Amino acid sequence: MKELNHIAIILDGNGRWAKKRGLPRKMGHVQGARTVEKVCRLCHKKGIKYLTIYAFSTENWKRPDDEVKAIMSLFDSYLDSCIRTSKKDNMRVRLLGDREGLEMLLPKIEKLESVSADNTGLQLQICINYGGRDEIRRAVKKLSEKVADGSLLPEEITEDMISHALDSGDIPDPDLLIRTSGEQRLSNFLLWQLAYSEFYFTSVVWPDFDEEQLDLAIDTYYHRDRRFGNVKEET
Ligand code: IPE
Ligand code: IPE
Ligand code: MG
C-alpha cells in the first residue's frame, strides 16, 4: 500500500460557518481552532507522521483589523495551550512563515518549538504569515547570500538545496493536500512542496470537518494512482 506520511490542509470556511449561524466571523475562527486540535489528535491516532496546517497567509493581513486581532489572539492562546500539552501529546510543533512581522507571537513560538523539539509523535507545522512565493523569495535570498560571499557557485545549486533553504527544510513533501469549503485553489500555499501531492477538495467548511471527512480524504488518496511522471506498472 502506498505511504501516507504527510497531510497538508488549507483550512477554509470559518467565516462562512459563522455567517450561516448569524455569528461574528471571529466565532468561526474559535470553532476552527477546536477543529485543528481535533484533527491533530485524529492524525496522531491514524499514525500520520506530519501534518501541515495553513492558518494565516501573507495576504490575510488585508482583512479588517478586528478580525486580524481576533485571529492573532487565538494563536496566542493556542500557543499557550500547546506549550502546556505538547509533551503529554508527544507532538513536535514548528512554524512555517516569515517570522518578521510576527514579533508579538515570536517568544511563544520559539518556546513551543524548543520545548517540543524532541517529541517523536505527530510533527505539526503551523503556517502563519506564510506565503509560498514569500518562502521561495526568502530561500532564494539565503542561497544568493552564499553565492555573493563565494561559498556557493551558481552551477552547484540543486533542487535539494532549494528544498532545504525553504522553511520546511528537511520535512518531506506532503502526500495529500486537503482544502475545505469548496474552493479549489492553492492561495499561495506550499507552491514548491506540493509539486506531486494528491489534491482533495471538499465542500465541508473547516469547523464541520470531522473524522468521517478525514477518512474520506484518506480513502480517496489510497485510490489515487501516483505516477511521478513514470508509467503505470503493469500488474
Ligand atoms: C479560513 O477561514 C481561516 C483563515 C484564512 C484565517 P476563512 O476566514 O477564510 O473563512 P471564509 O473563507 O471567509 O468562509
Ligand atoms: C487561504 O484561505 C489562507 C488560509 C487558509 C490561511 P483564504 O480564505 O485566505 O483564501 P482565498 O482568499 O479564498 O483565496
Ligand atoms: Mg477563506
Features:
235 residues, 7 helices, binds 3-methylbut-3-enyl trihydrogen diphosphate, Undecaprenyl pyrophosphate synthetase, 42% helix, single chain, binds magnesium ion, alpha/beta
- Which sequence of SSEs, written as H and E, runs from N to C? EHHEHEHEHHEEH
Helix tally equals: 7
Q: Report the major sheet.
A: 6 strands, parallel
CATH architecture heading: 3-Layer(aba) Sandwich
**Count of individual domains:** 1
Percent of residues in helices: 40-55%
Q: Can you tell me the residue ranges where pLDDT is under 50 for at least 5 consecutive residues?
A: none
CATH topology: Undecaprenyl pyrophosphate synthetase
**Distinct compounds present:** 3-methylbut-3-enyl trihydrogen diphosphate, magnesium ion
Specify Rg, calculated over alpha carbons: 18 Å
Report how far the terminal alpha carbons are from each other: 14 Å
Strand portion: 5-15%
- Structural class assignment: alpha/beta
What is the CATH domain class? Answer: Alpha Beta
Number of strands: 6
User: Would you tell me the overall average pLDDT?
Assistant: 97
CATH homologous superfamily grouping: Decaprenyl diphosphate synthase-like
Description:
The chain is α/β, with parallel strands linked by helices and 235 residues long. It has one domain (6-132, 171-222): 3-Layer(aba) Sandwich (Undecaprenyl pyrophosphate synthetase), CATH 3.40.1180. Helices cover 42% and strands 14% of the residues. The chain has helices spanning 14-20, 25-45, 65-89, 106-115, 132-148, 159-165, 211-222; strands at residues 6-10, 50-57, 92-96, 123-130, 176-179, 198-201. Strands 3-4-2-1-5-6 form a six-stranded parallel β-sheet, sandwiched between helices. Helix 1 packs across helix 2 (25-45) and helix 2 packs parallel to helix 3 (65-89). It is globular and about 55 Å long. The mean pLDDT is 97. Bound molecules: 3-methylbut-3-enyl trihydrogen diphosphate (2 copies) and magnesium ion. The site of one 3-methylbut-3-enyl trihydrogen diphosphate has 11 residues, from strand 2.
